[in-house]
Every structure is written in structure tokens, then in C-alpha cells.
């Protein structure tokens, strides 16, 4: 029950007098013996909600680097650094993950794949089973021919032989 002007609640319809040492003006959060302490219940609920909110904020802040990672490999490294930081309580891992997440790594694979594709088009190389079906030449090198019989891709030994012949021919011309 509530406190009003020095009388602490009613029990069985009769007001109870205050203790002689008590002040005449008690604050409203003091309850009578046996009554529910409303202030404690309200503070317990507030404490529970505050703890839950701080926990959610902590985990959202801790997952911040993962949101900024751009590529799959970068994302995985940042996640591992975040887990290490969470389990070891060493914040340097979280900072490293955050810095790594903000660095945009250049894409090396796309230009290299385009170069390889263009080189294959120039050489008219066929993939897969065609290479295995081609006959071997005298030196055991599998020559790759285009579908219409055009340019033959020379082997490394043939390129070296041609380079050597060209160098020897140039030397002979210079001597003459």
C-alpha cells in the first residue's frame, strides 16, 4: 500500500502507526512490511532491458567490420579476426579487422583471366578432349592447331630453335 502523511498503509482495514523513530514525512518509495517493493521491480526491469540493449549494441558494434568487407576472402579474414578478438578480449584483432574491411583490394583475377582468354583466342587453342586427341609430332610435342587449320602454336623447343637460327643467320650476315 502507499504512504500518506505518516500512516503506513492499512492492514485488515486498520491504519498502522509509524515507528516512533521514523520521520513523519517518508518518501513514497518506502513500502510497508509485506507489500511489494514497486521501485525494486521497476529497477529490475530497467536493469534487464538496459543489459539487453548494451549487449545488442556490443554485438552490432563487434560485427561492424563484417558489414564493410567487400570480397569473400576479405569477409572471411575479417570474420576470423572478429572471432579471435571476441574470444581473446584483445581489441587489436578487432581494429585490424576493421582496417582490413575498409581497404578495397584490387581485383587481380579479372584482368588475368581476360589476358588468358585473349591469348587463347590468338593461339586458337581448344580446351578439353581436343588436346588429347591431337597426334604427337616427331619431337613428342602435341601441336595445337586451330579448327580451320590455321596457325600452329609452336613448342618451346621450336621457338628456341628458331631464335637460335635467326641469331646465327644474323651473325653470318654481319660477317659477310
Describe how the helices and strands are arranged.
Layout (H helix, E strand, L loop, with lengths): L2 E2 L2 E2 L1 E2 L2 E2 L22 H25 L1 H5 L3 H17 L2 H12 L6 H15 L5 H5 L10 E2 L6 E2 L2 H20 L1
Antiparallel strand pairs: 1-2, 3-4, 5-6
Helix pairs in contact: 3-4
What does this structure look like?
The chain is mainly α and 176 residues long. Among the domains are: 1-35, no CATH class; 109-175, no CATH class. It contains 7 helices and 6 strands, in the order E-E-E-E-H-H-H-H-H-H-E-E-H. It has helices at residues 38-62, 64-68, 72-88, 91-102, 109-123, 129-133, 156-175, and strands spanning 3-4, 7-8, 10-11, 14-15, 144-145, 152-153. The strands form 3 sheets. It has a two-stranded antiparallel ribbon with strand order 1-2. It has a two-stranded antiparallel ribbon with strand order 3-4. Strand 1 (3-4) and strand 2 form a beta hairpin. The relative contact order is 0.05. Mean pLDDT is 75; it is low at 1-11 and 138-142.
Rg of Cα set: 42 Å
Helix content: 55-70%
Structural class: mainly alpha
What's the shape? rod-shaped
Strand content: 5-15%
What is the distance, rounded to the nearest whole angstrom, between the alpha carbons of the first and last residues? Answer: 124 Å
Chain-averaged pLDDT: 75
Largest sheet: spatial strand order: 1-2
Total helix count? 7
Order of helices and strands: EEEEHHHHHHEEH
- Biggest β-sheet description: 2 strands, antiparallel
* Residue runs with pLDDT of under 50 for 5 or more positions: 1-11, 138-142
Compute the number of strand runs: 6
Amino acid at each position: 500500500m502507499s504512504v500518506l502523511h505518516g500512516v503506513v498503509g492499512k492492514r485488515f482495514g486498520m491504519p498502522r502507526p509509524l515507528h516512533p523513530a521514523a520521520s513523519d514525512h517518508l518518501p513514497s518509495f518506502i513500502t510497508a512490511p509485506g507489500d511489494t517493493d514497486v521501485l525494486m521491480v521497476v529497477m529490475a526491469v530497467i536493469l534487464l532491458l538496459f543489459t539487453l540493449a548494451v549487449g545488442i549494441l556490443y554485438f552490432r558494434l563487434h560485427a561492424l567490420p563484417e558489414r564493410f568487407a567487400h570480397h569473400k576472402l576479405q569477409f572471411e579474414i575479417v570474420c576470423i579476426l572478429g572471432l579471435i578478438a571476441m574470444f581473446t578480449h584483445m581489441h587489436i584483432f578487432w581494429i585490424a579487422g576493421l582496417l582490413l574491411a575498409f581497404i578495397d583490394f584490387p581485383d587481380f583475377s579479372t584482368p588475368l583471366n581476360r589476358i588468358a582468354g585473349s591469348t587463347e583466342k590468338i593461339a586458337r587453342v581448344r580446351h578439353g578432349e581436343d588436346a588429347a586427341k591431337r597426334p604427337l609430332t616427331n619431337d613428342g610435342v602435341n601441336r595445337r592447331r586451330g579448327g580451320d587449320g590455321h596457325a600452329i602454336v609452336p613448342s618451346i623447343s621450336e621457338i628456341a630453335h628458331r631464335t637460335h637460327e635467326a641469331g646465327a643467320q644474323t651473325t653470318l650476315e654481319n660477317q659477310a
